[in-house]
Amino acid sequence: MQRYFIAEELSVGKEIILDKDISHHLMNVLREKVGTMILLVDPNQSLFEAEIVAIDSAVYVRAIKNVEQQVELPLDVHIICGLTKKDKPEWIVQKTTELGVRSITFLSMDRSIVKWNDKKKAQKLERFQRIAQEAAEQSHRLAIPQVNICDTLKQLAPLWHEEVVVLADEEQAKDENGLQTDEIMVQSSMSWSELVKNSMKNHAIYAIFGPEGGISSSERAYLSQWAIPKSLGPRILRAETAPLYFLSVISSLTELDQLNKRGE
């Protein structure tokens, strides 16, 4: 069944008029008729089966039943990516949404080639958020990731004060004499499973990825106050690939093992 996110709270038996974009898609793209069943996700992340009960200039639906479904990652994963070139940010938004990310922040970093002015940022944000919604609908999620654009790392620091923060930086991960504190050095030596287990205490983890040129030394020095440097394996990953690898690791450690156990 086709799935859509709506802005109005639903309950069984309630009838609503779908907004113009959803109505247009159902009427003119899919050419659905009265009696067709669709899936709707309301602002409470509640999923309902709904029936089309009337069509004129818009589509009218009635919520038939609430559907229990768990598709979100057990851990809120927040991705922070250095601003990358061309259409890479769009690709990152789409694919990380499919993999379960909770939020995506694009950040202008020292080695970012791309620079966006305020007008460009507003245009990009609108497009990114639309891509995130479409990807969330396609992958049958219950939440749409929030997309943000920031100018400096200092703007983000308050977000991760009490959270687990991972820095995907091969150079610092391999540097035993880096700038990190003793506590950070101990955490960086943890296995991925131990690190994820620690992050479950606050139900969130932040991961920082550089742009094409990587993380600068000044950014490493600043992030050493909070971030745990971790390697993503023996291969060098592209800026747009590393976040996907990270989310796959999180999924494997938090939900795939549980799914396998249920099937045994």
User: How many structural domains in the coordinates?
Assistant: 2
Order of helices and strands: EEHEEEEHEHEHEHHHEHEH
Assign the structural class, choosing from mainly alpha, mainly beta, alpha/beta, alpha+beta, or little secondary structure: alpha/beta
CATH top level of the largest domain is Alpha Beta
| Second CATH tier, the architecture of the largest domain | 3-Layer(aba) Sandwich
**CATH topology-level name of the largest domain:** Alpha/beta knot
Mean pLDDT metric: 88
CATH superfamily of the largest domain: SPOUT methyltransferase, trefoil knot domain
- Number of E-state strands: 11
Percent of residues in helices comes to 25-40%
In spatial order, strands of the major sheet run 8-7-6-10-9-11
What is Rg?
Answer: 21 Å
N-to-C terminal Cα separation, in Å? 29 Å
Structure write-up:
With 264 residues, this protein is of the alpha/beta class. The chain folds into 2 domains: 3-67, Beta Barrel (Ribosomal Protein L25, Chain P), CATH 2.40.240.20; 76-263, SPOUT methyltransferase, trefoil knot domain (Alpha/beta knot), CATH 3.40.1280.10. It contains 9 helices and 11 strands. Strands 8-7-6-10-9-11 form a 6-stranded parallel β-sheet. Strands 1-3-4-5-2 form a 5-stranded mixed β-sheet. Strand 3 (37-41) and strand 4 form a beta hairpin. Helix 2 packs parallel to helix 3 (118-138). The protein is globular.
